[in-house]
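**Fold in tokens:**
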Amino acid sequence: MISFKPISSRYQWLTGLAALFFLLLALVDFSQRITPAAVKNFSPAAKPDPFSALTVEAASALVYDLNQKQILFAKNPDQPLPIASLTKVMTALAAVDILPPETTINFIGRAWRLPTLVDYTLVSSSNAAAAAIARTAEEVMAEPLVDRMNALARELDLEATRFTNATGLDLTESEPSAISTARDIARLFAQILSRQPELLAATSLADFEPVAVDGIRYHLTNTNLAAKEIPGLIASKTGYTASGGGSVAVVFDRGLNQPIIIVVLGSTEPGRFQDLQKIWLATIQYFL
């Protein structure tokens, strides 16, 4: 039978001492390699910018972080362009500044309370509803509502924004009724969200059912076809005319009350939603 002699305590002590010696040598060598200059120059790999390769059909676009007050992406943000039915956002803001909420307005043969008809107008982008609101406001003001809209634009520092009517409909086939920029539209939405967020609340819904004073309920589909596709949608408005092409503006919460504004101007009717989807996806990737 083979037997093993126990290792002496002196030998174990010498072996441990040798191991400790070689460990100290390794640590000294490592510390010499990690110099202060190496630490100073160390940086993690740069995260790719998802906006750098982003291409959109729109003539102008903007992504704005409302909390950080920071532009994340911009393409010609100060180029004045037709905005079509984005006009109706200012129509609604001017009207609720003038008329009390209990005001009733006649529209399609029924009486509507002002807040409900504003929701109807913005969700469906109804020109007739916008015109009915404007007429009622003008009866109180004894002057065109569009004058108040332009005055509000100046008050809100929307320097490039001008309105000619309350609907956003073209004056002629080649002449738009309203001009603005992506920067101004983002500023307008930001101001409304800080002052009167309820004004745009219904525009976050893909489908909406306003109820007239007599109890008759209507079903409306949001003109923003992306309303179902953007989680955390807070507000939206679309626009399209022959002279202005397609436009869309949205505000969405990327999580924990962190609103982001996206504005697309000068695209095509279908292209505005494709642009919006690409910009939204790049924005989500930016924060990952």
Remarks:
- Confidence is low (pLDDT under 50) at residues 1-7.
- The helical segments are 9-33, 36-41, 87-98, 114-124, 127-141, 145-155, 182-195, 271-286.
